[in-house]
Design goal:
- By secondary structure, the protein is mainly beta.
- The protein is 3% helix and 50% strand.
- It has 1 helix and 11 strands.
- The strands form 2 sheets. Strands 2, 4, 5, 6, 9, 10 and 11 form a 7-stranded mixed sheet that branches. The protein has a 4-stranded antiparallel sheet with strand order 1-3-8-7, with no helix packed on it.
- Strand 7 and strand 8 form a beta hairpin.
- It starts with a strand and ends with a strand.
Length: 118
């Protein structure tokens, strides 16, 4: 069983930055793709960013140029650096594991709340 624990969410003003972290248990971290999803109230869950085990990245158009996904395999930790935050980035952010970038998620974290004030 894989456990994913997110941290780093909080309240920030528009234009500010936050860095989310996701600590993963187990060896699956190094062999699978990892990703960040978000869900705002009343909206569907959105695939925000992904990172394959080989280093290929995916970003949603809404975050390109502002968010950066990275991983530290030695620490089994996934990161999401979020810069130039906008009020529309407000959501619950979830860490996820999937076999490949385009596959369905097989493990979810519990989520961390990001709130951007205008």
């Amino acid at each position: 069983q894989v456990q994913l624990v997110e941290s780093g969410g909080g309240l920030v003003q528009a234009g500010g930055s936050l860095r989310l972290s996701c600590a993963a248990s187990g060896s699956i971290f190094r062999t699978h793709a990892m990703g960040w999803y978000r869900q705002a109230p009343g909206k569907e869950r959105e695939y925000v960013a992904g990172l394959s085990s080989g280093g290929t990245t995916y970003y949603a158009d809404s975050v390109k140029g502002r968010f950066t996904i990275s991983r530290d395999n030695a620490k089994n930790t996934l990161y999401l650096q979020m810069n130039s935050l906008k009020p529309e980035d407000t959501a619950m952010y979830y860490c996820a594991v999937k076999p490949r970038l385009s596959d369905r998620v097989i493990y979810w974290g519990q989520g961390t709340q990001v709130t951007v004030s205008s």
